[in-house]
Design goal:
With 151 residues, this protein is mainly alpha-helical. Helices cover 62% and strands 3% of the residues. The chain has a two-stranded antiparallel sheet. It starts with a helix and ends with a helix.
């Protein structure tokens, strides 16, 4: 799993470059033909990781229920985020992965509610979810690469 966590750390570093290199206005912009924006995609990957790994393991998530409701699958931006919200997302981008790796190494993921994604992937344990998460984040990174061309 060391390689899996190295991949996610690298992915999150690359994702954080969007937060560092685009203005709040650009992060909030929904280009024509898209249903979301850069910041929604970033917050969405944070929320999805927390649901797949923690919630389905019956453990508390780092993110609030309100944050989950705003960025879970099936949502879209309801308005622009503030600078304060941006700072929270920046922080959560790394805090969530640091905690997940520490918790994995401490063997806190003992139970799991088996889950099948809309794409047909079935997870039987948190390790399956952690591995799949890299695929999910890569999909959204690709979307963000497309969005940036139009902002």
């Amino acid at each position: 799993m060391d390689q899996t966590f190295e991949i996610i750390r690298t992915s999150r570093k690359l994702t954080s470059q969007f937060l560092d290199n685009y203005s709040l206005e650009q992060l909030n912009k929904i280009p024509e033909g898209f249903s979301n924006n850069l910041i929604w995609n970033i917050a969405h990957v944070v929320v999805t990781q927390q649901i797949l790994v923690y919630k389905l393991s019956g453990l508390p998530m780092i993110v609030s229920d309100g944050f989950v409701e705003k960025y879970r699958k099936g949502t879209k931006p309801e308005g622009d985020i503030s600078q304060e919200e941006l700072e929270e997302i920046k922080s959560l981008l790394f805090e969530t992965i640091i905690k997940t790796e520490a918790d994995y190494n401490a063997k806190v993921f003992n139970t799991y509610n088996e889950f099948t994604t809309s794409l047909g992937f079935t997870f039987k344990n948190a390790e399956d979810a952690i591995i799949y998460n890299n695929y999910h984040e890569a999909l959204h990174f690709g979307v963000m690469m497309s969005i940036r061309k139009f902002i």
